[in-house]
Every structure is written in C-alpha cells, then in structure tokens.
Design a protein that fits this description.
Blueprint: E1 3-6, E2 10-16, H1 19-24, E3 32-34, H2 37-44, E4 49-55, H3 57-67, E5 72-75, H4 82-93, E6 97-98, E7 110-116, E8 122-127, H5 141-145, E9 149-153, H6 161-171, E10 176-179, H7 183-188, H8 190-199, E11 203-207, H9 208-214, H10 220-230, E12 233-237, E13 243-247, E14 250-254, H11 268-281, H12 286-300
Parallel strand pairs: 1-5, 1-9, 2-7, 3-8, 5-6, 9-10, 10-11, 11-12
Antiparallel strand pairs: 2-4, 7-8, 12-13, 13-14
Length: 309
C-alpha cells in the first residue's frame, strides 16, 4: 500500500444551524468538542439531519487518496452495530482496505455532529464511543510494514491505550505522518505532540493556529524558524493566505484559490492532506504537492461533507 491511515472511525451527522444555536449550547465556533452520549443525543434531538456519512479526519484523507487512484488502507475501531456496519460499507465502497474486525463492543460506534453555520464554518461535537478506545492489540503490524507511509491523526492520541496504539504504529512505520487535527487537541496534548513532531514524525500537517499554539510562537516568523531547525517536513495551511511547506532550510509557498463558492469547510484540511500526499508519495516536488493539496481542498469546500464523490 501507499498509505495506511489510523484514526478515529467516526460517522458524521451533518446539520445546518444558525449562529444562535452555538451560543445557546455554549459551543465555540470552528472547534471540536468531545461530548458524552447523553449530550450528543440532546443536541441531535433539536436538529434536522442533512446527511449521514462515514467520516473521521484521517479516514477522509485516505478516501481522497483512494479516489485519486492510490492503494490505501484504514485502521479504526467500530462496534458491530448499525453505524459500525455503515462505516465499514462506506470505506469498502471507496476501495479502502479496512483493517479491523468488528465485534459487539460495550460502547457504540463513534459519531460526530457537524454543525454548519450560514458562514460555512463547521463546529463539531464528537461522541467518540468505541473509536476512542483503540489499543495496541487493534494495530495490525503487518499492514503497517506493508505500507510506504502511516498517517495518524492527533484526535486519536490520548493517554493510556490510544497512546500505546500510536507508539506501536509509529515504531513499525516505514514513514510516519500526522495531522495535529484541532487547536483544542493541541492545547490538551501540547508537550506530547511537540515531542512527536521533533522526534518521531517524518511529516507533520497543521493549520496556522495549531502550529502557533504548539510552539507558543508570537508570530508566523517564529514558526518558519522552528520549521527550518526541525529538519523534517512540516506542511501548514493558512486559510486565505494559502499554504506553506518547510523542509530544512527550504520554504515553499502556494496561494489559495480565489472566488470560490464556499458551502462547507468540513474536510478542507483532510482533503488538503490527501492532495499533498498524492503528490509526495508519487514523486512530485513539494511545490507541486502543495498545489495538489490546494486543488483538493478547494473542491471539497464547495460541497457539503468531507467526501468528494
């Protein structure tokens, strides 16, 4: 395989809301909040569902890579329930090899409520369910060794079993990449993420807010300096300011696309990573890989959800 993704296997439930819904429910726009099953059901009871689709950050990237013609796989924990079955079917339909044997678990399959406000921003409430209970026994070493690269998501990292799963995956990887996932996620695990970026990962994906928070930078110049000293590949999306990749002393920039009819920002970072990796794993130069990432993220934000087809 070209890339094996390991992440939270989450079914996305997409709903449109007004700004007032966020303030009434104490939600911070454009972030991801972890909720328990009771809070998830309470929020959902007030909403009209637009679409239900297999999701999860790295899974979205892996599906993007599959749609671009790459042989890819995914590892993530679901339960043998209606949503778990839907999740597995969704991946198989996209020609993604799924490395996990479902069984009846004490917790249900994870779900993410994606709330889209009129400005196209998305705010997420995630009930991780069994997805957050991934452990080292769920990690298929042969699948990792048979893949050119392992791609992990920061959302998955947590103390205890998920950390052990993460460590086992990285130790056995030919090349390890990770997405920092979310600002709150970075703030929860800052010292651990910084250790991974400096010592364990070959490629780090982040947005501007996440990387600034990770290294407590005062400005973006400090991020550039950090990237140059790192001597590893770091890829940063900057919204309207485009994207940038730092590889040793080399800095590559790519402008964002203008005049897009933005409908929903869900999956923008996930599909950017898919486009970038499409270039990177198939031998393109970094500047071209940034352009491919930009093209993919531009397409996804002009439709609802995080899957192109």
């Amino acid at each position: 395989m070209k890339v094996l993704g390991i992440g939270n296997a989450i079914v996305d439930v997409i709903c449109k809301v007004e700004e007032s819904f966020l303030s009434k429910n104490n939600l911070t726009k454009s972030t991801m909040k972890l909720v328990d099953e009771a809070e998830f059901k309470k929020l959902l009871s007030k909403l009209k569902i637009e679409e239900t689709i297999s999701g999860g950050s790295v899974a979205n990237s892996i599906v993007g890579l599959s749609q671009l013609g790459n042989k890819v796989g995914f590892m993530g924990k679901v339960s043998e329930d209606a949503l778990g079955n839907k999740y597995e079917e969704g991946l198989k339909k996209e020609k993604v090899e799924y490395f996990y044997s479902k069984k009846k678990e004490e917790l249900p399959t994870g779900t993410c409520l994606i709330l889209i406000t009129p400005d196209s921003e998305r705010t997420m409430c995630t009930f991780l369910g069994i997805a957050g209970k991934i452990n080292e026994n769920d990690v298929d070493i042969n699948a990792i060794k048979n893949s050119e690269m392992t791609f992990l998501e920061g959302y998955l990292w947590d103390e205890g079993d998920p950390k052990k799963a993460f460590d086992k995956a990285i130790q056995n990887s030919n090349k390890a990449a990770m997405s920092l996932s979310d600002l709150f996620c970075v703030e929860r695990h800052k010292s651990n993420f910084l250790y991974l970026v400096k010592n364990k990962l070959d490629i780090t994906f982040a947005n501007e807010q996440e990387i600034i928070s990770l290294i407590d930078a005062k400005n973006f110049e400090e991020v550039i300096s950090f990237g140059k000293q790192l001597k590893k590949l770091i890829v940063i999306t900057r919204g309207e300011k485009g994207s940038i990749a730092i590889n040793g002393n080399d800095v590559y920039e790519c402008d964002s696309k203008k005049n897009l009819k933005i409908i929903d920002l869900t999956g923008a970072g996930d599909l950017f990573a898919a486009g970038f990796l499409q270039g990177y794993i198939n031998g393109s130069i970094i500047k071209e890989s940034l352009q491919m990432g930009t093209d993919m993220s531009s397409k996804i934000i002009q439709k609802i959800g995080a899957r192109l087809k």
